[in-house]
Amino acid sequence: MYTIGIDIGGTTTKIGIVDHTGKVIRKTTVVTLDYPIITDYVEALHTALQPLIDEVGGKSQIKGIGVGAPNANFYNGNIEHAPNLPWKGIVPFGKLMSDRFKLTVRITNDANAAALGEMVYGIAKGMQNFIMITLGTGVGSGIVVNGQLVYGHDGFAGELGHVTIDRTPEARLCGCGRHGCLETYASATGVAITAREMVRKATGYTLLSQMPIDEITSKNVYEAAVQGDEVALETFRFTGKILGEAFADFVAFSAPEAIVLFGGLARAGNLLMNPIRQSMEENLMPIWKGKIKLLFSQLPEDDAAIMGAASLCV
Amino acid sequence: MYTIGIDIGGTTTKIGIVDHTGKVIRKTTVVTLDYPIITDYVEALHTALQPLIDEVGGKSQIKGIGVGAPNANFYNGNIEHAPNLPWKGIVPFGKLMSDRFKLTVRITNDANAAALGEMVYGIAKGMQNFIMITLGTGVGSGIVVNGQLVYGHDGFAGELGHVTIDRTPEARLCGCGRHGCLETYASATGVAITAREMVRKATGYTLLSQMPIDEITSKNVYEAAVQGDEVALETFRFTGKILGEAFADFVAFSAPEAIVLFGGLARAGNLLMNPIRQSMEENLMPIWKGKIKLLFSQLPEDDAAIMGAASLCV
Q1: Helix H segments across chain A?
Q2: What does the DSSP 8-state code read for residue A25?
Q3: How does DSSP classify residue B173?
Q4: Which candidate, A259, A301, B63, B76, has a CA 20 to 30 Å from the CA of A132?
Q5: Mutating which of B162, B249, B257 best tests the A interface, going by the most A Cβ atoms within 10 A?
């Protein structure tokens, strides 16, 4: 038996058929942006998937379809007010999909899907309590307690990118409309903003001053840091400090066995992990010092989102 | 059938036999401080309980013993390094109790027991997701997710009194050894400290200046606030603002249906609840505004701790 994983992004939708070991054995994509009408999009997914389903032996071989999408609600199958997707308002995506495919369809947000993927196929295999943090354009999270994902009363639990870590008047404005959210510092965008601030203040030489300041990206910061650039390294130290402080609070909440990092920014590896670990340890309550694992996702990066989504139907 | 609830405090241990409706039908106490040796204490509990057990029909009528105690670990039955109890180190309390009583014994910390009490007998009956916050000498918490208490990987989850809400150099020192914990502001002690700071700065008249500043307690603040004293009211507004900010972060974690308040400080009622609600609403992400219930425990105050502990064996 196989499962289908679909990862809906604002630009591209990744689709895959996953075997019982987690291997993605068939893959395709659909351009999300090409389908401003949701029923057209569902039809496009069907057209893309049907030949793959046939190749693995037909629908009888498929246990179900798991979908990871921004603002997706596990409880009711709806995608609700997702700012980066073409469909506005509340979209009954789960229902549309199950009507069209005549298969079990489960949906959740992308960070929750990532957490499930780690639990079923990845580094969190067998863990009953852990927290997944996705560091990308934004900061997402999926929380596992007693072996179950935490969806909360309304299906939207686990918005750890939006805990407030700066309450000063200088706190950065977040995309959610509030100020000082973790995401404004610990996302790729946040890292770029930090680097720009640091370059403006820098007195010594920095590789990052060789480009227009407002065009510095987190990728530039990474590349400069790898070359030992002090401003770039300091940017990661600052970001890691903030993440470590936030992680210490997360531990006080659910006392996880591990915190697992995933996403573009996590590629910075120890440049980011070392300062996170140091800051987290400094801020943990004594009972937890030295006891919380800090791990990177070990899933293949290209397939992780598909594997995570597919995990909903395992 | 009945359950036994035991609430171990640093000074007094409350003991009760609870019927299936949650009513405490027999009660007694033991002076915790009188028994510096743990086996003597267990023996004292047995001596105190045996006549009550006999009165309700003997041991065959008892489903089990639930115990609420500081630093109590649900997973292994140990009380570990509790600073306010007479027994040092790791005490295998659950095992000692079940050996002596020949009954099922379950233990957890007092705030978790309070949360269970609300879920089984109180205002959180039927709720699958809520957070209990106890506002007393310290700030404790019990978190319920998917109808289960969150114990975490090690049994110590739910230390929400120790999330950091002040990272400035002026942050108050906490009993846990760290700085800026929620507990340093939102406990009875924290409220007293806030009031003393405000009295020192006050320019107008305040009832609170009629006593030595360093002797002001949270009770004094409450009494002054009831009489409309502006400094006392401002103390509650400040405390409520901080609690509301913290609650908004807690909601981002587990999206609870409600946050339930209990404990001495919660007696301040709307003097505290109104500023908490205002601050929480201001700080919540848009998806949660107006949707999170803020409730007071409705359990009878004298029996709540016994009922909570007894809930472990329901």
Answers
A1: 38-55, 93-101, 110-120, 183-186, 188-201, 218-226, 230-254, 270-283, 304-310
A2: E
A3: B
A4: B76
A5: B249
- pLDDT, one tens digit per residue, over B45-58 is 999 999 999 999 99
Cα radius of gyration rounded to whole Å, chain B? 20
User: Using a CB-CB distance cutoff of 8 angstroms, which residues of chain A are in contact with residue B158?
Assistant: 252-255
Separation in Å, CA of A287 to nearest CA in chain B: 9
Interface test with B, best of A153, A162, A165, A259 (most B CBs within 10 A): A153
> Other CB atoms closer than 10 Å to residue B55's CB: what's the count?
12
Whether residue A129 and residue B158 make contact (CB cut-off 8 A), yes or no, is no
| Cα separation, A293 vs A300, whole angstroms | 20
Q: How far apart are CA A229 and CA A29, in angstroms?
A: 38
DSSP string, A184-247: HHHSHHHHHHHHHHHHHH--S--GGGGS-GGG--HHHHHHHHHTT-HHHHHHHHHHHHHHHHHH
Our measurement of the distance from residue B208's CA atom to the centroid of its chain's CA atoms, rounded to an integer in Å, reads 27
Helix A230-254 with A188-201: angle, nearest 10 deg: 140
A308 vs chain B: nearest CA distance in angstroms? 20
Exposure letters B205-242 (e unless 16+ CB within 10 A, then b): ebbbbeeeeeebebebbbebbeeebebbbbbbbbbbbb
Distances, alpha carbon B196 to alpha carbons A293, B212, B267, B291, in Å: 41, 10, 20, 35
- Considering only CB atoms, B129 lies closest to which of A153, A245, A250, namely A153
Nearest CA-CA partner of B1 in B48, B57, B80? B57
In the block, residue with structure tokens 């587990």? B254
B153 vs A contacts (CB less than 8 Å): 127-129, 255-257
**What residues of A are in contact with residue B249 (Cβ under 8 Å)?**
163-164, 249
- The residue in chain B having the minimum alpha-carbon distance to the alpha carbon of residue A292 is B153
Question: ipTM of this model?
Answer: 0.94
Cα–Cα distances in angstroms (integers) from residue B214 to residues A39, A188, B219, B230, B234, in the given order: 69, 49, 14, 19, 18
